[in-house]
Give the backbone structure.
Amino acid sequence: MRAFLTSLVLAASVAPAVALDCPDGTRTVLHPLIEGGGACVPVGARIAWVEAAAVNAWLLGAPSVTWNIYLDQFRAAYPGAFSEADRAGAVDIGRLPEADFEAIAAAAPDLFVSGDFWPEENARLDRIAPVVVIDYEGQAPGWREIHTVVAAILGKEAAADEQLAAFDARLADLRARLGPDPGSFAIARMMDSGGQIQVFTEMNFGAQQMLAAGFAMHEGVLSPDEAAALNRPYWYALSTERLGDLAADWLVVLPGWDAAVEEALKASPLWQSLPPVAAGRLIAPAGEGQHWIRDNVAFAHLVLDEIYDRILGLAPPPVPNPFGGWLAGN
């Protein structure tokens, strides 16, 4: 059975259209974000989610048999999401490609779900159990699409639809309160070396929520294509001499890597004269600020929480965060 399931998963990864003949005890899962369009997923499978989709699986009520750095980041933002027993019951693998493959094998999963970032590592995983690969790089899916493919793998499409609908209802309330033109924004973070700012483009997860809420990306921020020519489409480095490029109506300042560098810049006249700083129009995300970078529906709600609070002055928000009960630790 192990060899048969592996051959089916691999066949799905190369076939352009999928008409799988899945064996008894498995479900046929068809989704455009699965490499090849589909896979056979064992019913009741012990799944090891080895990348960020582990959080989506958790949100849909399906814990991973392995633990990774993305679950740690989620726990930092939502301390009550996991108990110590949840954490202790999963094998910690860190993050691919540096993961401990002996530890991964010890978890004895029935199936892996991975991303297409790591073809060599996925081949190693396949020697342990079949691998379903999500096509991130080939299709650049949005966070909603990622949630739907995870739901399809788990057979929890209805739950995912409910979660996304709840987010949309909350977003609609926020948009109505903000009005038709809430202003422009920029998102930045102090880098660990003096003299540079990390500026995020509209491909940043938090930026996508700001845009969905009706804000406009400030004209001084580069487009993803322009940023890609310098570094990558998600962000680029900006000299502090060009802080004027961040003269948006609202400035989101993510926690930096070096507190001393950050404090020195914030004390400088150049920073203090920046219009959103001088006007007190700053959003300082809570904790590590990963909810403005990592993409899942619970993190999207945290971004809305901070818009309600920092821009509208509404805390707690009039439409509650459905995951808000996890904000307090266990």
About this structure: Confidence is low (pLDDT under 50) at residues 1-16.
